Each structure stands twice: as structure tokens, then as C-alpha cells.
Amino acid sequence: MNRVKVHRPVQGEVYVHYGQIYVESDPEDFGPDLAKAFTGQRAGLCGAGIPGALWLTTGLHTGDVGFTVEVHDHAPPLDPTWEEVVEVSFRPVSAHSVLMQWAGEASWELGLQETDYRVRYCAQGMDEAREQDTRMDDEPQLDRYLLQFWPAPPGPDRIVRQTSDIAAYWHGYAARGQG
Fold it and tell me: Is residue 87 included in any domain, yes or no?
């Protein structure tokens, strides 16, 4: 039996603003453009339309969300507890890939190689977080996210699971060609 190795460069809470956070591998860039990020996609939570960048949508507009990034050597099993799940393909454009907050306020090195990856973005609690809009420091966590990478050839984006209204909205945005 093949044992899957996993590296977790991000685990805990990260701050989001405007309901977004990014993966960026171009050291000259500070976050992708929304419309370009979803060009040619059906899935609206993880925009991979710009080479070397990912746009990640959250339910919460402003505040801390639970966030974990995992880098695997093989495809990990899908945990059935996640309410929203999308998959995209991604290839870093440099050896320096980071999870980056809005406007480059903070970043976390991901340790990705310059190779093709499949990316799975999972979410829980998006509608509740969207309804609250902003989370203050003394309030409980509403939404959480898991971003998984593993080496794989490029393939089309796909919606694996969708249960929330806000995820449906963003999938519709992408499908209408707004992205």
C-alpha cells in the first residue's frame, strides 16, 4: 500500500479581506485579477485562469478564517465532511509560491516545485460566514478551508460538491463567462 506523504505549510487561521486570498508564484505580482482568474472555468471558488496564480474565494468578507494548505505526493482521499469542493490545475511560474493575503499584507511560503499540480479547494460554513460578513477577534470561527496540492497532469476544472448559496453564486459567475 502506498503511503501518502503530506506537508502542511499553512495551518491555523489566516486573515481575509473582500472574501479573497491568493496563491501567487510570480514574485512581481500582488494578487490576480478576478475576471481573468476565472476565464474559461465552470468552478467559481478557485480561479486558475492566470498562469502561476490562484484566486481563492471565502464566505467571510473580512476577518480570520480557518485555513490549511497541504502538499501531497499523491492524490489524497476526499473527506466527505467538506460542504464545498472544487478542483483545478495549477503550475507555479517560479520556485517561490506563497499563500498571500489581500494586497500582499502577509504571505506563507508553500514549498511548491515548478511542476503541474492538481489542486482541491474545500470549504465549510460559507453561507453563515457570508451572512455575518465580518468576524471580530472575540467571535467564533464561522468558515474554514482546505487547499490541497499534488503532482498531476493538467485537466479541466470541476465542481465536486456544492451545497451553499454563495458557492452556487460564484459557480454561476464563472460559468456565465464573467471570469
Answer: yes
User: What is the residue-wise DSSP string for 63-107?
Assistant: EEEEEEEEEESSPPPPPTT-SEEEEEEE--SSS--EEE-GGGS-E
* Residue 109 belongs to some domain of the structure: yes
Please state, in angstroms and rounded to a whole number, the distance separating the CA atoms of residues 71 and 9.
Answer: 8
**138 Cβ contact partners less than 8 Å away, ≥ 6 residues apart:** none
Residue range of the domain that includes 162 = 6-175
Number of domains in the chain: 1
Residue pair 174/41 in contact (Cβ under 8 Å)? The answer is: yes
Q: Is residue 1 part of a domain?
A: no
Task: Judge whether 84 lies within some domain.
Answer: yes
What does 147-160 look like in DSSP terms, one character per residue? EEEEE------EEE
- Residue-wise pLDDT tens for the chain (179 aa)? 456 689 999 999 999 999 999 999 987 776 788 989 999 999 999 999 999 999 999 999 999 999 999 999 999 999 999 999 999 999 999 999 999 998 888 999 999 999 999 999 999 999 999 999 999 999 999 999 999 999 999 999 999 999 999 999 999 999 987 54
Closest CA to 78 of 10, 159, 134: 159
